[in-house]
Design a protein that fits this description.
The protein is an alpha+beta fold. It has two domains: 129 residues, CBS-domain, CATH 3.10.580; 107 residues, Sandwich (Jelly Rolls), CATH 2.60.120. It is 15% helix and 37% strand. The protein contains four helices and 17 strands. The strands form five sheets. It has a six-stranded antiparallel β-sheet, with no helix packed on it. It has a three-stranded mixed β-sheet with strand order 1-2-3. Helix 1 links the parallel strand 1 and strand 2. The longest helix has 11 residues. The chain starts with 5 loop residues before the first strand and ends in a 7-residue tail after the last strand.
């Protein structure tokens, strides 16, 4: 795996681009006699081509770069990744040899999923796409997951004006809602509750619930799910404006 991330100063721009196409991370580590001498990004290579350098020429690079050591702690890593210019960091030992590579998205994935981590582990195996979620449209509006792991799912949900979620319950999860924007009505068991920005609603497992937007503006709320399973098939619908009751 690491071979797709390393080059030497003898490599051409074309050879570097081929490696970047294979590693899918848009960067390479430059080695000299087994030690890390620099880093090169796809942007660096593109700028060289734009300047008129041939794709078959050897690469050019600067020898000043940011890196981690295997002894660096959380605060050091976090502070380095706060820079918008840093999307990855090579990890070196005391001899400046390459031990590992950590991307910003992999770092975020480890933290948000509460995973144990060690800079000597094979960090490139971390699936950084775990924190990338699409927006899913529904008849009543849309939602986007912001975190999904084996112990929690959080979402931002938008309900369009004059729209409503189905009257439903969940068997395997409880939900916690905080209204961010808009006003409406929440059905919770046998109760009807007026909701507004800042209102908190707790929905236990097995409790029927529904949000109705009877206003002229979107309702936006944050939803945190806690439980043993977070699939969309853990929905039992009792009534639905859009004909989705089975």
């Amino acid at each position: 795996m690491m071979k797709y991330f390393t080059i030497t100063k003898k490599n051409t721009i074309k050879e570097c681009l081929i490696k970047i196409n294979k590693n899918k991370k848009n960067f390479l580590i430059v080695l000299k006699k087994g030690k890390v001498e620099s880093i090169v990004t796809e942007g660096d290579l593109r700028r060289q081509l734009i300047s008129g350098i041939s794709i078959d020429n050897k690469i050019k690079y600067k020898t000043k770069f940011k890196f981690l050591t295997i002894k660096d702690n959380f605060h050091t890593i976090s502070n380095l990744f706060k820079s918008k210019k840093i999307n990855f960091l090579p990890i070196l030992n005391h001899k400046k040899e390459l031990v590992n590579i950590l991307t910003k998205k992999q770092f975020h994935t480890l933290l948000l999923h509460d995973q144990q981590w060690n800079l000597e582990n094979d960090l490139l195996k971390i699936n950084e796409n775990k924190i990338d979620y699409e927006i899913y449209n529904r008849p009543w509006g849309f939602y986007k997951s912001t975190l999904l792991s084996n112990f929690v799912q959080s979402k931002i949900i938008t309900v369009f004006p004059k729209s409503e979620l189905s009257l439903q319950e969940h068997k395997k999860r409880e939900e916690h809602w905080v209204i961010i924007k808009g006003k409406g009505i929440v059905t919770l068991g046998e109760s009807k509750i007026d909701v507004y920005p800042g209102k908190y609603i707790y929905i236990p497992k097995g409790c029927k619930h529904q949000v109705i937007n009877n206003s002229g503006e979107n309702i936006i709320f944050s939803e945190v799910q806690l439980g043993e399973y977070f699939g969309e098939d853990d929905i039992v619908r009792y009534s639905d404006k859009y004909g989705r009751v089975k």
